[in-house]
Amino acid sequence: GIRRDAKAGPRAGGPRHPDAEARETMVVADAVRLIKWGRQWHELGEAIARMAGRPGVAEVRRILRAHKPAIERQLDE
Predict the structure, then answer these.
(1) Fewest C-beta atoms under 10 Å: which of 1, 27, 39, 72?
(2) Does residue 13 come out as left (phi exceeding 0), alpha (psi in the -120 to 50 range) or beta?
(3) Percent of the chain predicted with pLDDT > 90
(4) What is the DSSP letter of 16?
(5) Which of 28, 32, 26, 58 has the alpha carbon at shortest distance from 45?
């Protein structure tokens, strides 16, 4: 049979892919920047997902939910 490349798709519940942390860091930085530029929280998922090299909107929203406290801390700095 044909074996799929490990990067072919996300595996829910599996070990974190090394690129997953980099994507999360990028999305968090994008969120902080967009909020500082005046975007509202509910606009972030779609706005970030439209940027080149970013994950899809569902993944972006998951990352935003998971990192909301960290994003809010960075806005207070």
Answers:
(1) 1
(2) left
(3) 73
(4) P
(5) 58
> Residues 20-48: pLDDT tens digits?
999 999 999 999 999 999 999 999 999 99
Nearest to 59, CA basis, from 28, 15, 18: 28
Q: What is the DSSP string of 19-68?
A: HHHHHHHHHHHHHHHHHHTT--GGGHHHHHHTSTTPPPHHHHHHHHHHTH
- φ/ψ (deg, to 5) at 38: 105, 0
* Average pLDDT of the chain to the nearest whole number: 86
- Identify the residue whose tokens are 């207070």: 76
Amino acid at the residue 7:
K
